[in-house]
Amino acid sequence: MLNLATLVDSSVKTNPDGLAVIFNDSKMTYTQFNAMANKFANALRALGVERGDKVCVMLPNVPFFPIAYYGILKAGGVVVPMNVLFKSREVEYYLADSEAKAFVVFDGFFDEAFKGWQAAKTCPNLVVCSADMAAPPLVQADGVTTFGRVMAAAAPVFDTVQTMADDTAVILYTSGTTGKPKGAELSHFNMFFNALYTARFLIYGTKDDVSLAALPLFHSFGQSCVMNAIFSVAGTMTLLPRFDPGAALGIMQRDNVTVFAGVPTMYWALLNYPEADKYDLKKITGALRICVSGGSALPLEVLRGFEARFDVPILEGYGLSETSPVASFNVLERPRKPGSIGIALWGTEMKCVNEKMEEAPVGELGEIIVRGHNVMKGYYKKPEANEEAFRGGWFHTGDIARMDEDGYFYIVDRVKDMIIRGGFNVYPREIEEVLMEHPSVSLAAVVGVPDAVMGEEVKAFVVLKEGKTATEADLINWSKERLAAYKYPRSVEFRPTLPMTATGKILKRELYGEPIPQQR
User: Which pTM was predicted?
Assistant: First the structure.
């Protein structure tokens, strides 16, 4: 038997008076936090939530999130996190597809959440979380209540439901870039071991660690590598609802943050933040002992620049929602290879294969496939998707990489992001790396756009460094000198910013445009 909530149940015994959660001026010890999670578990029981029932959560990085998350698990329920930026149509789909029994939402996102909940007509309970615990429901409707009301009558003691290790703990929906989102069913063991291994063997965490939760907790990276990982060692999580480089530096300084996990765009923002010197960088770098990057490939120029300025190593890892999420990592006891996503997680297997499932020779490209304790049970109610994803008994990631002679993997790109120009495969990340080496370039994203002659043509979107200049011709010529003739961008569009998801990934689909003139 195993329940992911054991992370809290165990830590409250070993560190009852230690700080569990910091949010602005509010602080909760493990004893206080555990009592709140217990109260919410009792509240869910009163609402009719039983073992195996799904509970959707649409909450930002505020204390309500971890309280609801572990309360659901303690009650034997299944957590279904939602992006807080969802519109009503997306809310409706998640509620209906997951067959949720309850829906927990922050009042700041109530309008879209309520419309989606009403449209779904499948979820009997809507619990609204407000800073004012005594506030009445925002609307008077059957099934709508508040966090304050359900908690008021709930006892602070609860006997955590003894779920089985292979029972589903969390359903994480994929982004749905190639169709409707699919729910990856992750077991209690998937999530428990991934968090425990991350904390104790990758970042060597202790109860004295303070981890900054800047990554959205509704995302797998934030859940496993920040929240679950830090709770597994009875450390402290300090919450940042929405990433901002100034706010992040302020929290690092205030709370003596020792561990920071972020996506590449966060490191880029911190490195290029013009007012960073307003903060006590000496104090920040003195406390910060390790950083972790994932979500997408970290440009080498950003890695080198950040490490030089903040005097802290960044360990790159790799994973997906379907792998709990960590699948590979640069580990402290082995040489770190900048630009690499490291070696396969202990107890798992990773390799690069061609379309025939033949393993690619060392140094050659192939699709990453994974199998092991971190791989999901499958997509919820999607047998055809599972058949496709688990071909040959391995989970197919859709990511293109190469492996070196030491077993280190290097991501090249997503299969779906690959550009086919005149019959040649072009991988955007390679071009982005070259562009980011230009002294004037701060950030770059490369996409394929339709072209009557080549089928697809290479186009770059570039953000320049403050005070720097460059022309389209400058960057095209820079690329031509460093890339094969079929790879360099034929056009460059300058932007003040690039569109990003709530998790900090560049939204390339919003950059795709009309066919561009052929340049020879």
Answer: 0.85
